[in-house]
User: Which sequence fits this backbone?
């Protein structure tokens, strides 16, 4: 496979977080009492401020409704970030549209857009967790229909015009404006996809940029989805749109330091999810394989992480990479250090390498 046309769009380096509840620095990983949800949220805002100060392009905040993640209302957190930052763009990672109301989602993000002077983005998705469905009284049997209908309404609300719409899961709208209106006329809206061809085609149908959530396996396995997306855009006669990718990772001074710091937290979080979902125990061999050159975990020195990002941006023809920098109970101080290295060292390396003459990459 040769390089895809990522250079059509400017290269961007961002971050995202699920607002993981963390532990304080202690002598033994996972031995301390975790921080409160409140302190974890305050720390998240400080992390976003650092990302802004060192010139990163984006900070995304996920939505979850469970004990190990502190953020259930990302727009509120983004409002706090907007008030303390100047340049960084901000958004969801992702907004679970299936269990929310598209009109309210639009109104909340349009408000963040106003507070941030036009820096808000929305990443719409179905989410990898389903706890919001019983919490808000929704039937998981309607999983597909809810998202299909709600993204259709959201696409209508994006137009700078009154909305007339009818569906099965929500009351109709007739010639209805939705406020506040963004000063630019619309909100930048992505569709987050974890591996469904139908979701890829849906993003192309609406002419929305594609955001690939690559949290396991090999990023090269997602190249067919990127190719499908570009073909579908052409078939729907939509203009070319950017492709972004998100993956977890951690940056330290050396590969060895990064691998050793992250492993106990990655192991604990993966095993917790495994107990919920019936996965076998996580092994160090799995960890090292996923952290290797072809895996989906970006852990290592700045040079190692930058080289891996460039490789996969080229394979997918993507122009943006967001690092999920929060990993389980990994302490705030480690997160700040990783963010600093990512912004000050990884990001410049990636931009420099992507600006150089592209090299064919097999995969």
Assistant:
């Amino acid at each position: 496979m040769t390089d895809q046309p990522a250079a059509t769009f400017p290269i961007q380096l961002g971050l995202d977080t699920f607002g993981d509840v963390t532990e304080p620095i202690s002598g033994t990983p996972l031995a301390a009492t975790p921080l409160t949800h409140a302190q974890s949220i305050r720390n998240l805002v400080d992390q976003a401020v650092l990302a802004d100060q060192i010139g990163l392009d984006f900070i995304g905040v996920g939505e979850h409704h469970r004990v190990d993640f502190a953020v259930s209302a990302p727009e509120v957190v983004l409002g706090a970030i907007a008030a303390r930052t100047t340049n960084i763009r901000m958004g969801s990672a992702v907004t679970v549209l299936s269990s929310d109301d598209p009109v309210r989602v639009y109104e909340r993000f349009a408000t963040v857009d106003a507070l941030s002077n036009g820096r808000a983005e929305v990443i719409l998705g179905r989410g990898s967790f389903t706890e919001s469905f019983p919490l808000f009284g929704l039937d998981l049997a309607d999983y597909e229909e809810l998202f299909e209908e709600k993204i259709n309404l959201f696409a209508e609300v994006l137009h700078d015009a009154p909305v007339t719409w009818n569906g099965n899961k929500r009351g109709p709208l007739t010639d209805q404006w939705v406020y506040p209106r963004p000063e630019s006329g619309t909100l930048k809206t992505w569709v987050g996809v974890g591996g469904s061809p139908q979701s890829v085609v849906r993003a192309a149908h609406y002419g929305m940029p594609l955001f690939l959530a690559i949290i396991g396996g090999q990023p090269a396995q997602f190249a067919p989805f990127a190719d499908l997306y570009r073909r579908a855009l052409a078939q729907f006669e939509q203009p070319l749109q950017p492709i972004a990718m998100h993956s977890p990772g951690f940056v330290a001074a050396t590969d060895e330091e990064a691998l050793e710091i992250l492993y106990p937290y990655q192991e604990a979080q993966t095993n917790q999810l495994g107990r919920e979902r019936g996965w076998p125990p996580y092994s160090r061999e799995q960890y090292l394989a996923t952290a290797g050159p072809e895996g989906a975990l970006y852990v290592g020195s700045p040079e190692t992480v930058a080289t891996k990002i460039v490789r996969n941006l080229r394979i997918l023809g993507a122009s943006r990479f967001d690092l999920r920098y929060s990993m389980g109970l990994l302490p705030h101080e480690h997160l700040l250090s990783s963010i600093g290295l990512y912004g000050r060292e990884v990001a410049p390396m990636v931009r420099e390498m992507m600006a150089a003459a592209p090299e064919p990459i097999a995969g």
